[in-house]
């Protein structure tokens, strides 16, 4: 009975008038189908924006606006902020609320915007972030588990159920495992999604990633709307072969990622593999740290003014030898930049 009430509540929030009335007369499977088809399906490259900082460590809103438009012009399929690659854990609540509003406003519906709502604080903070995201017109939310409290798998399940009851927009479960919370079993994720239809997507990063993505796609086909990946997009080709819906890499090479995704979907797999081999060399270049790498790419592309971070090493820094290696990789990517 409780599950029926939850589903009816979701229907009332998501569907109106004749449509809502007609599906309430149908059988459960019809209701499920209508729910899933009543929302836009997300596919493609949904880069996680890096947060630009001025030299005084304040968020550079002008550069942030430029980053939003760069992602759109470069052919991104969505925008995600703020997650680990955005340094969310060193942003104040006020900064997160204000910047989320700025991103949604600047995007103007040109791409779907997914707002990160996890918090290093109490669950209630995440719920407030989620409600705020929905109120400003975000297209969805994404969240890590409450990892700082060392939540159990069952507590993580309850956390996502609570999120689902708090908003009606689609939710991405970021299932990273390790230091970022327990990795929920595939069957548990599907069970939650079946009970709460706005648990619609998974950003799968827990090991073994490829096997988990394939299992989520096969078992969750009638329940989940999509399975995305992360980890800098380093496994994108293998993930797409297993039915992945897309990826959430950093913003530095969004146009290259988008070209690979679109080539693969068009059946041009050899072209996708050729470009991916060049991109993989950059995405695997960890001598400067993955966050510094993304910000340096954005700086060299004229999007960012600097590589300032609020976490160590605080800016892009390396030896001349490493910088020369980086420059070769960057120049190899240039022919595939769209902006």
Total of DSSP H or I helical runs spanning 4+ residues: 14
For the biggest sheet, the summary is: 8 strands, parallel
Spatial extent as radius of gyration: 20 Å
User: What is the terminal-to-terminal distance?
Assistant: 53 Å
SS elements, strand count: 8
Strand proportion, as a percent range, falls in: 5-15%
CATH architecture of the largest domain: Alpha-Beta Barrel
Q: Which superfamily, in CATH terms, is the homologous superfamily of the largest domain?
A: Aldolase class I
Shape type? globular
Quickly give the structural class.
alpha/beta
CATH topology of the largest domain: TIM Barrel
Average of pLDDT: 88
The SSE order reads: HHHEHEHEHEHEHEHEHEHHHH
Low-confidence stretches: 1-38
**Helicity range:** 40-55%
Q: Into how many domains do the coordinates divide?
A: 2
CATH C-level class of the largest domain:
Alpha Beta
Q: Which strands sit side by side, in order, in the main sheet?
A: 1-8-7-6-5-4-3-2
């Amino acid at each position: 009975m409780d599950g029926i009430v939850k589903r009816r509540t979701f229907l009332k929030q998501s569907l109106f008038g004749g449509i809502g009335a007609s599906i309430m007369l149908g059988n459960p499977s019809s209701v499920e189908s209508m729910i899933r088809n009543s929302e836009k399906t997300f596919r493609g490259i949904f880069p996680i924006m890096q947060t630009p900082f001025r030299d005084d460590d304040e968020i550079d809103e002008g550069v942030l606006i430029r980053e939003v438009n760069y992602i759109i012009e470069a052919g991104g399929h969505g925008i995600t902020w703020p997650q680990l690659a955005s340094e969310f854990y060193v942003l104040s609540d006020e900064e997160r609320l204000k910047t989320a509003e700025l991103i949604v406003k600047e995007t103007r519906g040109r791409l779907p915007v997914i707002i990160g709502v996890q918090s290093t604080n109490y669950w209630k903070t995440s719920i407030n972030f989620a409600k705020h995201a929905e109120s400003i017109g975000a297209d969805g939310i994404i969240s890590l588990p409450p990892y700082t409290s060392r939540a159990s798998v069952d507590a993580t399940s309850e956390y996502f159920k609570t999120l689902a009851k708090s908003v009606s927009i689609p939710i991405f479960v970021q299932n990273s495992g390790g230091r970022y919370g327990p990795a929920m079993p595939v069957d548990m994720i599907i069970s939650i999604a079946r009970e709460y239809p706005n648990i619609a997507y998974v950003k799968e990063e827990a090991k073994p990633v490829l096997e988990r993505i394939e299992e989520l796609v096969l078992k969750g086909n009638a329940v989940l709307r999509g399975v995305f990946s992360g980890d800098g997009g380093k496994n994108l080709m293998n993930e797409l072969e297993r039915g992945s819906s897309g990826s959430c890499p950093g913003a530095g090479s969004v146009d290259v990622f988008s070209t690979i995704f679109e080539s693969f979907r068009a059946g041009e797999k050899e072209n996708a593999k050729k470009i991916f081999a060049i991109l993989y060399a950059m995405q695997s270049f960890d001598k400067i740290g993955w966050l510094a790498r993304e910000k340096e790419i954005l700086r060299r592309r004229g999007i960012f003014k600097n590589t300032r971070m609020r976490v160590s090493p605080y800016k892009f820094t390396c030896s001349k030898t490493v910088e020369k290696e980086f420059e070769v990789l960057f120049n190899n990517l240039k022919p595939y930049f769209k902006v």
